[in-house]
Write a structure and sequence with these properties.
By secondary structure, the protein is mainly alpha-helical. Helices cover 60% and strands 3% of the residues. The chain has a two-stranded antiparallel sheet. The chain is globular, with a radius of gyration of 16 Å. It starts with a helix and ends in a 17-residue tail after the last helix. The relative contact order is 0.12.
């Protein structure tokens, strides 16, 4: 693998915090089921709610896409090596993202845009990122760097920053803060 130490730290952060929810060392469907519960609970959505159903459907589609692409040994789990290899491929041509990668990016934007106004503000960003164990103060710092001092991040800006997170080798690039962490 040709992944730098810096990019591997970023990838491992996303792997460990957002995907390997049960901390088993691999990603599997159970992680997605736990993530669905966490997200829906955070938003106050019940199993009968339309947003709960949509979140469930979206997350399972993301899992299926991830599994189909990254689970190279077909054991029903995505290992750290499989994860890093897949994102290394992405970094070579981020404009040709896999369907599940794009779906996950869109999902994360809408999760953070709680007001559904087409932009993420600092409070929305802190609300989501702090649910994953980050201190609100760190999330606020990350948002300031991510937004480059602006009050909001539009969808188009988010897309650009997302690509930057997964491809950048420069520790000061704004996209590196998209998941709320300020240091890797």
């Amino acid at each position: 693998m040709s992944i730098s130490e810096f990019r591997k730290k970023k990838l491992m952060y996303v792997f460990n915090v957002f995907f390997d929810v049960n901390q088993s060392g691999t990603i599997d469907r159970k992680d997605f089921e736990l993530a669905i519960e966490k997200i829906c609970s955070m938003r106050g959505w019940k199993a009968a709610d339309e947003k709960y159903k949509k979140t469930h459907e979206s997350m399972i589609q993301i899992w299926d896409g991830l599994r189909q692409r990254a689970d190279s040994n077909k054991d029903g789990q995505v290992s750290v090596d499989e994860w890093c290899s897949m994102w290394d491929e992405y970094s070579k041509n981020p404009d040709k993202a896999l369907e599940w990668q794009t779906q996950y990016m869109v999902f994360m934007f809408h999760l953070e845009d709680a007001s559904d106004d087409g932009a993420i503000d600092v409070n929305e960003f802190i609300s989501v990122c702090s649910c994953y164990g980050l201190k609100p103060a760190e999330c606020r710092q990350a948002f300031e760097k991510l937004s480059m001092g602006n009050a909001e991040i539009s969808y188009d800006q988010f897309v650009s920053l997302w690509k930057e997170f997964f491809t950048s080798e420069n520790a000061t690039d704004a996209g590196n803060y998209i998941f709320g962490k300020t240091k890797f």
